[in-house]
Amino acid sequence: MSVLVFVEGFNGEIKKSSLEAATYGYQVAQQLGTTATAVAIGEVHEDALAKLGEQGISKVLYDADSRLNNFVADAYVKVIAKAAQQENAKVLVFSNSNIGAAVGAKLAVRLNGSLATNVTTLPKTDGGFIVTRSVFSGKAFAEVNLTSDVKIIAVKKNALEIANAGSGAATVEKFSADLTDADFAAAPKETIMQDTSGGVLLTEAEIVVSGGRGLKGPENWHLVEDLAKALGAATACSKPVADLDWRPHHEHVGQTGIAVSPNLYIAIGISGAIQHLAGVNSSKVIVVINKDPEAPFFKAADYGIVGDAFDVVPKLIEAARALDK
Ligand SMILES: Cc1cc2nc3c(=O)[nH]c(=O)nc-3n(C[C@H](O)[C@H](O)[C@H](O)COP(=O)(O)OP(=O)(O)OC[C@H]3O[C@@H](n4cnc5c(N)ncnc54)[C@H](O)[C@@H]3O)c2cc1C
Fold it and tell me: For the whole model, what pTM was predicted?
């Protein structure tokens, strides 16, 4: 019996959220007295895979089939299911990304397993396999007991620190699930676009700088972009901003947009409506800049600046640039 972790790549490197999943997988394996293997698909550098040893992964099964460079759910499920069978994996660990959540659900059906998404804790294994899930957009926690033989866990992003288990390099083995064209023909539209702002993937970013309608128009977005650049952050926006075509829709965060959990979320000229908060309230630190001291966002903020964005943000950009020198 082993633990299998699915790791995702971006630009050839392992995503941060997958390093978190690998850390989680290794810690579960330790609890269960077994080893953690990873499975990787598509375009990932082999040296990045070998470095998963630092998170405690002993072996990586790598399917480099170029048809898998874009996400195709059924094909991914076939590869991971075969890896799980080969490794006799009873615990499968994913990041709670779009891909992880989609594949995890399909695998639960295929392997007759139990699935827990948005998991924030290691399992309690005395008398069951109980994990804590973040529910209702991070407003509450639920404990669930996974009772099936196969347990599938999607780990909430940024819920745990990436550990360095320091156990050297993982061995990387070529792996193939003998996919046929039919595996791809079945789901021709399931392709996830990897959108980036300034080279930083919004869903993976440590820092997000986000702008709302308070910025008045797209011509003022240099304030968001310059601050993001100075901090190495991704850019985001509120829904009306995307609806008005000031920014592309893939930057819209919230209940109907992307959910982010960076270490730092800076909201500029955003009121803090509940639908916006639903997508950002698991950020570790929230900084709000708003000229209205009664703006609801201040209630969710760790730090707040009451002031005009057009005065405040240029000063922040200057300070962030000075830090870099
Ligand atoms: C079903 C549904 C789903 C929704 N999903 C989402 C979602 O996913 N994401 C989302 O964002 N919204 C969503 N909304 C919309 C949400 O309710 C709000 O309308 C929206 O978030 C408001 O965007 P905003 O804060 O940018 O604009 P506004 O509400 O117009 O707020 C602008 C803010 O900027 C401040 N401001 C103005 N000028 C300045 C200045 N010079 N300097 C500093 N501050 C200034 C104002 O004080 C104000 O607080 C949804 C709504 C519904 C009904």
Answer: 0.85
